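In the laboratory, one determines a bound structure by crystallizing the protein with its ligand and collecting diffraction data. In a computational setting the workflow is compressed into a single prediction: the sequence and the ligand go in, and a structural description comes out. We illustrate the idea with NDP.
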Amino acid sequence: MIQLTDKVAIVTGGARGIGKSIALKLAQAGANIVICDVLDNMTEAVSEIETLGRKALAVKADITNAEDVQAVMEKTLATFSRIDILVNNAGITRDNLLIRMSEDEWDAVIRVNLKGTFICLKAAAKIMMKQRAGTIINISSVVGVMGNAGQANYSASKGGVISLTKSAAKELAGRGVTVNAVAPGYIQTEMTNHLPEKAKETFMSVVPLKRPGTADDVANAVLFLSSDLASYTTGQVLHVDGGMIM
Ligand code: NDP
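The predicted complex, in structure-token form:
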């Protein structure tokens, strides 16, 4: 079994959905968890982590705000003295066809998914470089590789996350810090529950494993990349998509 005993992990958007599953999975392996989210209510996630016998810190923060993110890093260091793992999971969608997409819809998605990931990655990298150790996992998406009609903003942001991951991996490798991405496919969460039935059917028709993924499937991949088993893996994209892309 993978052990993360006493490691300290920050999970953005960790109050619900895939982020919460990641937070719980890392806690089950022994890590103490810092959840940062724009959601006010993080008590459920915190109490579930504490029930596992791990420490949990919840910090309300908008990842697009560098001051908020700096406060997350400072509170983490004040509480746990180090940061071993950062999971950049927070993300949003504002779907629309390209010719109908407003600049606001474009900007909102790029700001959270790409700029927010950059802000968190930069803030954690400074600390991890000093520690000469750490691992960063960015949650991308299958559509960041293959594109998707109606999601020009989202797929551009998630493609950008992959390029950001590779550039950061090259810059930080010399200081013992790894950076990887996980690209989930069609995962059953609140984000995808809102998709029209037709879109769900279209996704399922291209999934060789013939089932939607679960938040736990994504969390398992993050657990592996967070662990010493992945210590020689950096700049990679791990697809968790039932074989959609191969
Ligand atoms: P959810 O919407 O369920 O959860 C995302 C969390 O991030 C929410 O708690 C949300 O808060 C929070 N969040 C949003 N914006 C910010 C912000 N600016 N600062 C801090 N927190 C924020 O999404 P999922 O769990 O479905 O997705 C998690 C990640 O996985 C995302 O990056 C998504 O793009 C990616 N992904 C998901 C797939 C899927 O099928 N579900 C497929 C591929 C990738 P609030 O609810 O208040 O907005």
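The longest strand covers residues 177-184. Keep in mind that any predicted model is a hypothesis to be tested, not a measurement.
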